[in-house]
Design brief:
Layout: H1 4-13, H2 35-43, E1 65-70, H3 87-96, E2 101-103, E3 109-111, E4 114-119, E5 124-129, H4 143-151, H5 163-166, E6 169-176, E7 179-184, H6 191-194, E8 219-225, E9 229-234, E10 248-253, H7 257-266, E11 271-272, H8 280-284, E12 289-294, E13 299-304, H9 314-322, H10 326-334, E14 339-340, H11 364-374, E15 380-385, H12 392-404, E16 409-414, H13 417-423, E17 430-435, H14 441-448, H15 463-473, H16 478-495, E18 498-499, E19 502-503, E20 506-511, E21 514-515, H17 524-527, E22 535-536
Parallel strand pairs: 1-10, 1-11, 15-16
Antiparallel strand pairs: 2-3, 4-5, 5-7, 6-7, 8-9, 9-10, 11-20, 12-20, 13-17, 13-18, 14-19, 21-22
């Protein structure tokens, strides 16, 4: 084991000097569990806690049916958790499947299908499964199911959205009917959190047809029509005693936010995700409805491709970043709920947030300087946006106005919601994305910013960033780990073709007869996991 001094020397040997430190801010009242803490907590056999702790008081009651509106519906909707892309996919998968671990409100990891997870070195992990867990078709959960579920992400034909993360796995082996040994290529203290993401839920061994949605989750599939609806019913054999409470849930997609609000207030749906901040007064004014606000790392980002012209120019990227009037966006688009961002994805509430990066300001004069230096004054650039990427249409309009003042013609193309993600998202030089929070910095950077990441939206490649990412995974010294993540934020801020103006509040609307509703700051609707926690008091 290297000493802290030796590890610091190793860090410097990766090629940097003068690393930027971060703050030790708490997230949800507690910091993310360090590797040793995670290991001890999970090895101790901690039982699943209540995600809805602190939610509306009252004794849960069984029965009832609710209709829920997500913000997207597409013919690409999937029951294969490896392929989940949209929030409606995550909701669907958390209803039907269970993972080895799960996240609590404070973003600490707790046990789910795993009875214990132990590691002495954060590289070799011993996983013992709960006994008596049944899939929806009556088959018992075994180690073979876990091995299959995790290994399939590394197979190219699976097209898994977390392949870059699962590539950390050296081997996954069954050591008994309920025992699994997972060996990483290098130590990673965040493994329990990785196993909690919706893509890593457990499916039956050998599954190739996902049309039935067979899992061990709180609900069983009754009907699935991509782009139309998902209908699930209570699983009477769910491994958590007593849950779920509801008899039936129907999930639909309503891309237009105003339509989602109208559906809620009319009683057509009882719960909806992603309300516009400008709709909060209208919903709150209804005696039968309420809003729930969760602060998180959710953001809508301007994507400037590194492999296309003119967005490959660093000066053009910088010009666009200076054209973002962040305070005005926060006020006009989010009614003061939003938090000013700084062109990197870690929010101020995160324990690894780097407060030492100078805040980038709205500065048209500096934007003009960079455009002129790039030889791009006066060009015309199509900018693609869609209502399905939260407030991207409005952001595009504000950028268009600012750009016009310095001689840049941004031609805003508003794209229908049902085709945006598949046909336009990071397919052109300039588009918008919308990224959900991740439970750890490693997951965020691995899925969205690593050179090989499937959602590396701007297509940037930075060897220093990739080296730091690998080194941070196995670093047990929290101060050094914080330095690494702090420098990664700086690298994104300075070099990535990305504009992140604000962190968006997650605002859900619900019928007051829904009880047990709470927060999990990785996504709306309780981190997309509301289904097994809420009950109907109507």
């Amino acid at each position: 084991m290297s000493t802290p001094r030796n590890r610091r020397e190793l860090l410097q040997g990766l090629g940097a000097a003068g690393l930027v430190g971060g703050a030790t801010a708490a997230l949800g009242g507690t910091t993310l569990a360090a590797g040793s803490l995670v290991t001890r907590a999970l090895a101790a056999g901690a039982s699943p806690g209540s995600l809805a702790a602190g939610a509306a008081a009252g004794q849960p009651r069984r029965g009832g049916r609710i209709r829920v509106a997500g913000m997207a519906a597409s013919t690409a909707d999937t029951l294969d958790p490896a392929k989940g892309t949209l929030s409606t996919d995550y909701i669907r998968h958390y209803m039907l499947y269970s993972g080895l671990t799960r996240l609590r409100q404070d973003l600490r990891t707790e046990l789910a299908l795993a009875e214990s997870i132990e590691s002495d070195d954060q590289r070799v992990w011993r996983i013992k499964l709960r006994s008596g867990v049944l899939f929806h078709d009556g088959r018992p959960l075994t180690s073979a199911d876990v091995v299959f579920s995790l290994r399939r992400h590394s197979i190219a034909a699976t097209a898994s959205k977390i392949k870059a993360i699962i590539d950390q796995f050296e081997s996954v082996e069954a050591r008994g009917p309920l025992d699994v040994r997972l060996t990483l290529r290098g130590p990673n203290a965040d493994l329990p959190a990785i196993l909690a993401v919706s893509h890593a839920v457990i499916v039956p061994d050998g599954t190739t047809d996902f049309s039935r949605g067979i899992g061990t989750g709180a609900y069983r599939l009754r009907e699935f029509k991509p782009g139309v609806r998902t209908l699930v019913e209570r699983n009477p054999d769910y491994w958590r005693d007593g849950r779920p409470w509801l008899d039936e849930i129907e999930l639909i997609g309503i891309p237009d936010e105003l339509a989602r609000v109208n559906a809620l207030l009319s009683g057509d749906v009882q719960l909806t995700i992603a309300l516009d901040a400008r709709s909060t007064r209208r919903v709150s004014a209804s005696p039968g409805h309420a809003i729930h606000v969760t602060r998180s790392g959710l953001y809508t980002n301007l994507i400037l491709r590194a492999d296309q012209r003119p967005t490959s120019s660093p000066d053009f990227v910088r010009a666009m970043q200076y054209l973002m009037d962040r305070p005005t966006m926060a006020r006009a688009l989010y009614r003061g709920y939003a938090t000013i961002a700084n062109d990197q994805p870690i929010p101020p509430e995160h324990p690894y947030y780097n407060p030492d990066i100078p805040q980038r300001q709205y500065d048209p004069d500096r934007a003009r300087f960079h455009l002129k230096r790039a030889g791009l004054l006066g060009i015309r650039l199509p900018l693609y946006a869609s209502q399905v990427a939260n407030q991207s249409v409005e952001m595009a309009g504000m950028l268009q106005q600012s750009a016009a003042t310095i001689g840049l013609n941004l031609a805003v193309n508003r794209v229908p919601a049902d085709s945006y993600w598949s046909s336009h998202w990071f397919k052109h030089p300039a588009t918008f994305g919308n990224s959900n929070p991740r439970p750890t910095a490693d997951l965020l950077f691995s899925t969205l910013f690593q050179s090989s990441a499937p959602w590396n939206e701007s297509g940037w490649r930075n060897e220093r960033f990739d080296s730091l990412l690998v080194a941070a995974r196995g670093e047990g010294d929290e101060s050094l780990r914080r330095e690494m993540y702090g420098e990664m934020q700086l690298l994104v801020h300075e070099h990535c073709g990305m504009g992140i103006p604000v962190f968006i509040p997650m605002i859900d609307g619900y019928d007051r007869r829904i009880r047990g509703f709470g927060s999990l700051p990785i996504g709306g609707l309780m981190g997309y996991q509301f289904a097994e926690h809420v009950w109907w008091a109507g």
